# Entry
Amino acid sequence: MAFHMTINGRRVDANAGETVLATARRHGIPIPTLCHHEAVEPFGSCRLCMVEVTKAAWKGWKGLMTACLYPSAPDLIIETDSPRVRQVRKTVLDLLLARCPDADVIRKLASEYGVEQTSFVPREHPDKCILCGLCVRVCETAATAAISTVQRGHHREVGTPWGGPPPDCIGCLACAHVCPTGHIQYSEAGGVRKIWEREFKLVRCKETGKTLPITEEQAAFLAKRQGMDPSYFTMSEEAQRTRTATTLGKIARWDKLGLVQEEVKS
Amino acid sequence: METVRYESAEGFARHVNDLRRSAFASQRRVLVCCGTGCLAGGAQQVAIEMDKQLSALPAAKRTELNLVMKKTGCHGFCEKGPLVVLMPEGTFYKGVKPKDVADIVHRTIANGEVLEHLLYVEPKTGERVARYGDIDFYAKQMRVAMRNIGHIDPASIDDYLLRGGYASMVKALTTMSPEDVLVEIEKAKLRGRGGGGFDAGRKWRSAKKAMGDRRYVICNGDEGDPGAFMDRSIMEGDPHGVIEGMIIGAYAVGSHDGFIYVRQEYPLAVEHLRKAIDDARGRGLLGKNILGTGFDFDIEIARGGGAFVCGESSALMRSVEGKVGEPRAKYVHATEKGLFDQPTVLNNVETWVNVPRIIEKGADWFTSLGTDRSKGTKAFALTGKVKNTGLVEVEMGTTLREIIWGPGGGMIDDGPKGKFKAVQTGGPSGGCVPESLLDLPCDFDSLTEVGSMMGSGGMIVMDHSTCMVDVARYFLSFLTDESCGKCVPCREGLLQMYGIVSRICEGQGKLEDLEQIESLSQTIVVGSLCALGKSGPNPVLSTLKYFRDEYLAHIQDKRCPAGVCKALITYKVNHDACDGCGACLRSCVSQAISGTIRKGETFQIDEMKCDRCGACATVCKRAAIAAA
# Structure
């Protein structure tokens, strides 16, 4: 079902089941986010995507809602950049800057809202984690839920079971890649990948001898989840191409001999 | 009494009638309060001694007395515990020690003699009061939610039945349709007692209308506000009342599964609820085909893990599901997608326990109590600097003054420092109400209007020895620890605010800090994910509103008027009042006091060494040492 709503004075079409953020982005209207990613369920923790929401029937009452969670609905009137919205975003970024003064993403966003220096007291030993929870949610969705947020309040952090190397981790790097601030560190050298205090052996293609950007655990996990032959994940692209070409060549030869059907079946 | 299972409403009525006529009902009762407060005061030993003494009586005497001892839930008058009440006479003994038990048994119980020294003395008149009902603390209350607490043994379903228990449930299930029940609750305008004050009837109605495979009812027993213990007392003292309310609610909305979420710190509540659920199930009041009506409903207990935030409804539901207890946005209400994404009715303990009473006496009776928009009664946990701390239940709209000087008995200390300064209501989400607003009626809307809130009913009375900036700091430190940390404004914002208020307490405050508190509050209020964050700045905002001068004294004069903030006070010896006894010198762990112990001598306090613990001032019998 499609309907209309208004964003920043513009009449736009929206779909049932869509969030305000999705509708706005589909129409090229920017709303800043830090904890949002299309691959995972919306979370609503960073509060940057707050927008002003009202309806003609609400008699002038306007609520501040998180666009990533608020469902689009007929006749909504949305302001994505009003002074009230900008004020909340400014304070949120000011707070995040006090937490993570070294995170480039935060510095850049804060600067866009007029905050060059935090007006609060910076954290004593800052890191770059803004606790958006994306790493945890991506790991839950795409991998093995090997990490989680632990503790609460200002003691909250992203952690591993008992603070040690996470036993379920497959070293897929999804957490590191999705991290908006680059807080999650990893390294790769000599066919070994290091992340979360664990070492993972990278797969070596048997055909070409090349090191592939995938760990042995990851290959096994993906093969199992996808129900595919593990060899699909443990061969280099060249080796796969060679194999495909060889197979096709065989088929072509067998075709002439009238043997194709049986061979392909097997 | 043999175990029975009620197959029908008639069977239930027959059994209750038999019970009324039985020897069990006509027994005289010795009620020993075993609420948590009295237990802490040694009630367990009193109960053991009482049992021993009663069994030691000759058999003939025992038959003649026809006596039974019952360990009851909290009588509410925790200040004076352990309490022993003799029924039906209503003789009320306070501060009972195991050594008093023999006297109670041999003189009062056996001979009808009243033990003067165990009677309560009414502070206003100085008179000893013999009867329960004549004590101001109880006489000025109106008990609806707490009607059974203290009168019954919470572990006995028959005690509850004799007080009219489960009759409302039977009435609802057998003479009313689910719609009738719902309409009755709507008409009663029952508002949620857990904090928000949302209309319970409306909540039930939308859950009933919502589409779903199953519906759930939940009782929120995760009471976590500092100083509040109404729900604990109800769960401990009248567990069947909660269960009956939930059965009626489940019947009205068409639910078959209920959960009672009890916080980790309430083991006694869990024990009593578990027993009550088992007993009710045994009698056929819970489970399949209740009373032969075809209605199925059962209750499970879910235990919290000790997080304050799990009292928030969406976090509570996540916790019941076995997930991390964190709130989520409520743009889709729990009545549509709550527990396991199914329509869910979540109400607080006190709300549920009101339900049977409404069904019993009717919505018209309930709406005759209270104010225009807040009906019925409200239980408060009255604590702080009042004479009678404890649980009080009064009609909605009773003024703060009437509560504090009525059941509360007024301020503890009659001196100048003991004068009333403020009352904190609503826990960490509430605020401090000053003296000028003492005649404010206690109902949901009035308290919210002045910047505080009803909350679940915590009420902390403060006098002039309390520093309001320090109070704000305390609540902020509570909230920064108890915030789940999911969203930025609550996690980072409250932490920064705690930092600012702490600096003010330490004498490092600047005038600009007050502006920063106010602007930061605005973002926390509108920007936080859940109600805990949104109401987090309340303790600061309300103290700033009514006690700005105290903040200014800390910031501009570097002075703490209440003499609480350590960095801003010094202890001085009044040499004229000092008699040289040396108690201060011996009490000082920092060796900051010098002088010779001799009559006529006096002492000096070294400010540099003094760590402002106040021990010297506490031990000084002549009040010669004071903070300034």
